[in-house]
Amino acid sequence: MNEPVLQCRNLLPLTSRVQESTGITLELPRFSLTCIVGPGDSGKTSWLRLLAAVDPAAGGNLRLLGQDTSWLSTAEWRRLRQQAGYVLPNSALLSSQSVLQNVALPAQYHYQHGWDTGSHAEKKAVTLLEWLECTADPNELPEYLPAYQQKLVAIARCLMLDPQILFIDEAFAFMDAQSCRKIARRYLAIRDELKITLVLATCDLAFAKAHTDRFIFTRPAGPKVYADWASAEQDNDEAVRNFIRSNFDHYSTFYA
Amino acid sequence: MVNTLTGWTGRQAIRSGVYIVDLTVFIQLAIRDWLFRGRFFNRATYRSLVNQLLFTGVDALPLVSLLSLAVGVAITSQLIHLTSDFTEAADIIETLAVLTTYEVSPFLTAIILVARSGSAISVDLGNMKLHGEIEGLELLGINLNDYLIAPRLIAGAISQLVLAIYFSGIALYGGLIAAGILYSTSYLFFFDNLLIAHTPDTLLLFVFKNLVFGLVIAGTACYHALQVAGSSTEVPRQTQRVIVNSLAIIAVFDGLLAVAAL
What is the ipTM metric for this complex? Predict the structure, then answer.
């Protein structure tokens, strides 16, 4: 139980854009909140996908939920995905299905409640949407929802499978300040109440400073892992200092 | 010039062969994943299948009815007009039954399915791929073959078979009634001949042919839709390939089957 939920050593992405030579080494304890921050186009998504075992690594070793992800078969990878949720930047909900159908889908597909009790999945979906304070009409198509609501629906869809860890790409993208504040509270509730480890890719430094247990700064020269905000601020790395200086005030207006 | 021409022909032949193998493996894998999942349907897959059956099969009924009636009347009229001077009415009806049931109805139903469902599946799945919806499903541990492809293949095959039977029925009986009204009421007494014309062998061939047609149409549509990557211009391009390729495969397969059945 005390085993870290994610462990990696010298993990390297396949993307040629990232020039790091040493890769990333870190351990994420259970029920922690980690943010991947960095300038736009610095590879936040690449790192998030790599840590979530969505993309294959060019080198190094990754253990996710106690499983070595290097040699996973397709079936094992699919089983892992039920325990390690991943929310894509655009939420990627099925446009032809209603909010409720989208959320209930994974539980229905994976027989979480058996064949004859399909309504259980829908009840659970409604409960989750209410818990996430998603005010969207369950019968509405996701296309008509604002980005904030779409993100909540996508998170609810992942939570249907009771994952142990949740990766969220562009956690605050396309949202106004009020929505950012609301969704930030839900992220904290997911960690504290549902006891799910969270890894977010975001530009929101204020959120990272206030709530993150550790964060990963991505830069062209390679990622840097910090245990807390203070150690990042004290770092003499020019890229990190410049990014914090130039972005903190801007993003602080979004999230306080 | 000759070398270029033969080289081009050879390359096209190899490319077509590889394409057919790819498509066959794609369809086989989808069916295998569906069969080996343990239970054939879960609620999500079942709903997907029912939606596909409604769209591919039930929604196509008005168009199939209209087309089959028109074709039935046209073929019956032409056949009677061309052969009534030297052939018995009973023979004309038997010829009509065989021609309509085994050649016209499967092929025209397939054309309707390619135009309606093949293109729709291609656009639907292509856009899903483009907008990341398919990746979203994969990230939930959902097997695409099982959830997206197999229901479309099954619905395609069942719809093609049922619609072809329906097409034959409307075309034959509609044609016969039209002949009875337009030419001679004696044609109305040949309803039984429509059934006598069929043997168990030819009926099996009819079922086999239509199931394969349905699988080819849905399989080609899914196969090409999943090739969409990056740009929205890919969707119409792949849809065009779906229509052209599935029609070509169906025509060639139909011809080969007709020769083999002789």
Answer: 0.90
d(CA B222, CA B250): 16
Q: What is the 3-state secondary structure (H, E, C) of B41-78?
A: CCHHHHHHHHHHHHHHCHHHHHHHHHHHHHHHHHHHHH
Q: For A217, list phi and psi in degrees, rounded to 5.
A: -95, 125
pLDDT score recorded for residue A211: 87
CA dist list (Å): A45 to A40, A63, B260: 10, 19, 56
- pLDDT tens, position by position, A44-78: 899 999 999 999 998 889 999 999 998 899 999 99
% of chain A with per-residue pLDDT over 90: 52
CA distance B64 to B61: 5
Give the pLDDT confidence score for residue A17 in this predicted structure: 55
B198-236: b or e for each residue (b if 16 or more CB lie within 10 Å)?
beeeeeebbeebbbbbbbbbbbbbbbbbbebeeeeebbe
- Which of A109, A161, A162 is the best substitution to test chain B (most B C-beta atoms within 10 A)? A109
Q: How far apart are CA B153 and CA B215, in angstroms?
A: 5
Q: Say yes or no for a CB contact (<8 Å) between A88 and B139.
A: yes
* Alpha helices for chain A (secondary structure H): 44-51, 74-83, 99-109, 118-131, 147-159, 177-192, 205-211, 229-234, 238-252
What pLDDT is stored for residue A52 in this prediction? 95
* Mean confidence (pLDDT) of chain A: 87
Please judge whether B43 and A118 are an interchain contact, meaning their C-beta atoms are less than 8 angstroms apart. Answer: yes
Supply the Cα-derived Rg of chain A in whole angstroms: 18
CA distance B237 to B115: 15
Q: Choose among B45, B136, B143: nearest Cβ to A92.
A: B136
Long-range pairs, A221-227, Cβ under 8 A, ≥24:
A221/A19, A221/A20, A222/A18, A222/A19, A222/A20, A222/A21, A222/A22, A222/A23, A222/A24, A223/A20, A223/A24, A223/A36, A223/A38, A223/A43, A223/A47, A225/A24, A225/A25, A225/A26
Say if the Cβ atoms of A90 and B137 lie within 8 Å. Answer: no
Q: Which of B49, B52, B125, B133 to mutate to test the interface with A (most CBs of A within 10 A)?
A: B133
Which residues on adjacent β-strands are paired with residue A215? A35, A226
Distance from CA of A212 to the nearest CA of B (A): 25
Burial of residue A255, with CB atoms counted within 10 A of its CB: 0-12 exposed, 13-18 middle, 19 or more buried: buried
CA distance A240 to A220: 11
Query: By CA distance, what is A117's nearest residue in B?
Result: B43
Nearest-by-CA chain A residue for B132: A92
**Vertex A242: Cα angle to A239 and A248 (nearest 5):** 125
What is the per-residue pLDDT across A6-31, written as a single tens digit (0 to 9) for each? Answer: 999 988 888 655 555 668 899 999 99
